[in-house]
Request: fold
Amino acid sequence: MPLDLRAILTTLAALASGSLAAFALTNPALRDYAVIASQSEVDRWISSGPTAVAIGAVVAALACVLTQRRGSTRAAWIAVTTAVAVLAMIRVAVPEVAVLDLLIALTIVKSIAAGIILGCALAASWGQATAQNALLLGVLTSFLSVRAFSDGAGRFSTSAIGEPAWGLLAATAAVAVGCAVTASAGFRIRRPDSGEIRIALVVTVALAIGHRVLGAVVDGNQYAAEATIWTVLVLAAGAALALTAIAANRLGDQSGAGGKFLWATTALAASSALLFVDIAQQPGLWPSPWIPVVVAAATVAIGLRIHRRIPTALASAVLVAVPVSELLPFDAAHGVWATTVKVAALGIGGAILLGSLAPGSLVDATLGLAIPFAAMTFASIAYVTRQLSFPIPIYSAYLQQQIDIDAIPVPTDAYVANLVLAAPVDYVTAESVGATVLFAVTVTICAAAIRKRPRPVVEAAIPD
Reply:
């Protein structure tokens, strides 16, 4: 059987584009920073990250729609190549930036470029089984693992995890150019109908803005009275689920529709939120940040391979088990092995769900894949519940740099990781149980929505 060069390049381009887009859209909110600026400037900088991700999610859907309307895979891969070039220029420019306002602008441009890469790559590869799985593999692997590259303190960068590596940028550009050169003029991307476009874009904008506003509300109440905080957290989680339910209802819940896929990606975002806070608070947890990358890639690949043979209920149960594991003894729930197992569980469970529920609509798929990055509500809830559960070590790289006393050693990343792990024995408190229950219930509601029978399609009667 002869090798199909075009199919191989498309698969590689989908994998690289999904990995790069996910890396660039991963911008966890900064809780510590190593910059010198006024408080108002720092506040603007910190809030720009989640805002940029929300913009990137909307741009991804728009890019997918425009690519579909044009119908050319060559144009899609040219757009991907152009966006990669923009990311490369941002990577070159960031070390020279000394003004926060310029850094904020670069952050927004970076998210826009990432959205273009995700939307165009998905439009050009979705529906081709191997390329579609490659895109899911790239997106999910980066989503689950790239936070391990963070050093725990925000510096002059467009993200807490830094800029994309030159190797990833070069590889994505190379295969995208190859796809553009070898693209067949006879292969056209399916054009969407106007109703599908309108619904998907409205839903994307509503979800992106809704999650951004809810996340800001949670962050704004993190120092309120404990009763007020818990009220805000429960209401925010409920509002996020209600918003998702409305959006999923508009997208449709039949087989192949985008509604159930949206519930699946929302479940993944909620299930992983507490884990990502733990990873952010333990810089240097793994001997090498590539360990979670390998674990995530392997488990996601396995999940995509077996998704047809595993019921979605079992995959949903795996996602529910991740936040429930918080009730285990501290070392058993937050050590290196436990964290690695959680990454693996999210990889295989998320891959089975997304592989089984992948929608036929390209723009619905783009929206679903953007949601785990744009769901700032769950990220903010996870951070605040961690504050309530146990004290977070104060770790400011800026203050460390200012220490000029030989008798006081500057803490290292390993020291900070050990400090985090040195939690009190009575870690399972009312607050930690409350956080576990809140996220477990959230994921369970998403799982129930996935299992819900689709509404029968009622055809209008034709008068005689």
